[in-house]
C-alpha cells in the first residue's frame, strides 16, 4: 500500500469507474523503469488494473499506446489498453500479474531449473506466435516495418559497448582497428538476417507470468523490424537469469523446430551461427547499458549484472571463434577484456 496515489487524469478515473472501481480501491507501486515510468496496481475485490504514469507524452509513450493497440488487435500477448490520457501521460491497462519470468525462475540468486523447464517453452511458443504474425502485422503497420533494426542501429550497439565498457569501464583508450572492423562486419552480417517483428528488449523482466502459466510481454515500445534471431538471443543469454548452457541449447532447438520460417530457411548449424551473431550484438548492447546506467546514471542496481554479462559474452565469443577464424585477433582482444 502507498500513502499517496498519483494525480489521476479525469479520463482515467472515468474508465476505472466504468470497470467497477471505487474510491475504496487499494493502490500500490507495482514497478518503475529507468526512463521515469512508474506502474501502479489498483485492486478492489477480485478486480485489478495497472496505471502507467510517464514524465511526458514522449515518443516512447506514443509508441507504447499505438503499438499496444495494434498488438491487441492481433491478439498478441500484451496487456489490453483500456484508456489513455495524453495530457497527463497516463495509460490504464490490463494487469498481467505480479510475477515476471525473472522473479519466478531466479530465487536467492539461483536459477530454478524446474521452473525454467516449465516456463521457457511457454515463452518460446508465445515468441514464435509473435514472430509468425510479422507478414500480416507489417501490412497493417507499415510504420513499424519501416522502423528497421539495420546496420546503423546495430553499429550503434557495438559503439555503445566500446564507449561504456571498453573505454570507460576498462579504461582502454585505444581500440585496435581489428576490433573496430569486427564490430562493423558483425553489424553487416546481422543486417542480412531475415527480418521479423522484434520486441527489441525481450528479457526476463519484460515477460510476465500469469496465474495460469500463460505469459505476456511488456515494455514493447521499442518494437521494430529486425533479425529473427535477436529476441531469442536476448531471452536465452539474458544475464539477469544466466541459464545453464545446456538449457540455452535445448531451448534454442525448441525455438528452431517450432518456428517454421527458421527451420525451412536454415539447417540447424546455420541457424546456430546466426543466433550466435545476434547473441554477440545483444550482449554487447546489454553490457554497454549496464555500465552506462551504473556509472553515468548512478543507478547502482545495474552494477550487479556486469559480471554475469561479462561471463555470458565471453562464452558466446568462445563459441563463435571457431566459426569465424579470420576474426581471431579481434575476438582474442575482446575475450581478454572480459577476464
Account of the protein in words:
The chain is of the alpha+beta class. It has two domains: 84 residues, Phosphorylase Kinase, domain 1 (2-Layer Sandwich), CATH 3.30.200; 239 residues, Alpha-Beta Complex (Aminoglycoside 3'-phosphotransferase, Chain: A, domain 2). Helices cover 52% and strands 15% of the residues. The strands form four sheets. It has a five-stranded antiparallel sheet with strand order 1-2-3-5-4, with helices on both faces. The protein has a three-stranded antiparallel sheet with strand order 6-10-11. Strand 10 and strand 11 form a beta hairpin. Helix 7 runs antiparallel to helix 8, helix 8 crosses helix 12 and helix 8 packs across helix 14. The mean pLDDT is 95.
Task: Name its key features.
Aminoglycoside phosphotransferase domain-containing protein; Kinase-like_dom_sf; Aminoglycoside 3'-phosphotransferase, Chain: A, domain 2; 2 domains; Phosphorylase Kinase, domain 1; 339 residues; Aminoglycoside_PTrfase
In CATH, what is the class of the largest domain? Alpha Beta
Classify the beta-strand content into a percent band.
5-15%
Number of helices: 14
Strand order of the largest sheet: 1-2-3-5-4
Low-confidence stretches: none
> Judging by the overall fold, what is the CATH architecture of the largest domain?
Alpha-Beta Complex
Tell me the helix content.
40-55%
Strand tally: 12
Radius of gyration: 21 Å
Shape summary: globular
Distance between the termini: 44 Å
Broad structural category: alpha+beta
**Major β-sheet, in short?**
5 strands, antiparallel
Report the mean per-residue pLDDT as an integer: 95
In CATH terms, what is the fold-level topology of the largest domain?
Aminoglycoside 3'-phosphotransferase, Chain: A, domain 2
CATH superfamily annotation of the largest domain: Aminoglycoside phosphotransferase (APH), C-terminal lobe
Number of domains: 2
Q: Helix and strand string, N-terminal first?
A: HEEEHEEEHEEHHHHHEEEEHHHHHH
Protein name: Aminoglycoside phosphotransferase domain-containing protein
Domain Aminoglycoside phosphotransferase: 34-259
InterPro entries: Aminoglycoside_PTrfase, Kinase-like_dom_sf
Pfam families: APH
Amino acid at each position: 500500500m502507498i500513502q499517496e496515489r498519483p494525480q489521476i487524469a479525469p479520463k482515467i478515473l472515468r474508465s476505472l469507474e466504468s470497470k467497477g472501481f471505487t474510491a475504496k480501491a487499494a493502490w500500490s507501486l507495482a514497478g518503475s523503469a529507468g526512463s521515469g515510468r512508474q506502474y501502479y496496481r489498483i485492486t478492489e475485490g477480485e478486480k485489478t488494473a495497472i496505471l502507467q504514469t510517464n514524465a511526458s507524452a514522449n515518443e516512447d509513450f506514443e509508441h507504447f499506446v499505438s503499438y499496444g493497440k495494434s498488438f491487441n488487435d492481433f491478439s498478441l500477448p500484451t496487456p489490453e489498453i483500456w484508456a489513455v490520457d495524453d495530457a497527463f501521460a497516463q495509460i490504464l491497462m490490463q494487469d498481467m500479474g505480479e510475477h515476471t519470468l525473472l522473479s519466478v525462475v531466479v530465487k536467492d540468486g539461483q536459477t530454478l531449473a524446474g521452473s525454467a523447464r516449465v516456463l521457457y517453452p511457454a515463452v518460446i511458443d508465445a515468441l514464435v506466435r509473435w514472430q509468425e504474425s510479422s507478414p500480416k502485422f507489417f501490412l497493417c503497420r507499415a510504420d513499424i516495418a519501416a522502423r528497421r533494426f539495420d546496420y546503423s542501429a546495430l553499429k550503434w550497439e557495438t559503439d555503445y559497448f566500446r564507449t561504456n565498457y571498453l573505454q570507460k569501464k576498462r579504461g582502454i583508450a585505444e581500440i585496435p582497428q581489428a576490433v573496430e572492423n569486427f564490430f562493423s562486419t558483425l553489424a553487416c552480417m546481422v543486417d542480412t538476417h531475415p527480418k521479423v517483428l522484434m520486441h527489441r528488449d525481450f528479457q526476463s523482466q519484460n515477460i510476465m507470468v500469469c496465474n495460469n502459466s500463460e505469459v505476456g510481454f511488456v515494455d514493447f515500445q521499442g518494437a521494430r523490424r529486425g533479425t529473427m534471431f535477436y529476441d531469442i538471443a536476448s531471452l536465452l543469454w539474458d544475464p539477469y537469469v544466466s541459464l545453464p548452457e545446456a538449457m540455452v541449447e535445448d531451448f534454442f532447438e525448441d525455438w528452431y523446430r517450432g518456428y517454421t520460417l527458421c527451420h525451412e530457411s536454415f539447417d540447424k548449424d546455420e541457424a546456430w551461427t546466426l543466433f550466435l551473431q545476434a547473441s554477440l550484438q545483444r550482449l554487447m548492447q546489454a553490457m554497454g547499458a549496464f555500465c552506462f546506467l551504473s556509472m553515468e546514471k548512478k543507478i547502482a542496481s545495474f552494477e550487479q549484472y556486469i559480471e554475469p554479462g561479462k561471463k555470458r559474452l565471453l562464452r558466446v565469443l568462445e563459441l563463435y571463434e571457431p566459426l569465424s577464424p579470420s576474426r581471431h585477433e579481434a575476438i582474442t582482444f575482446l575475450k581478454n577484456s572480459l577476464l
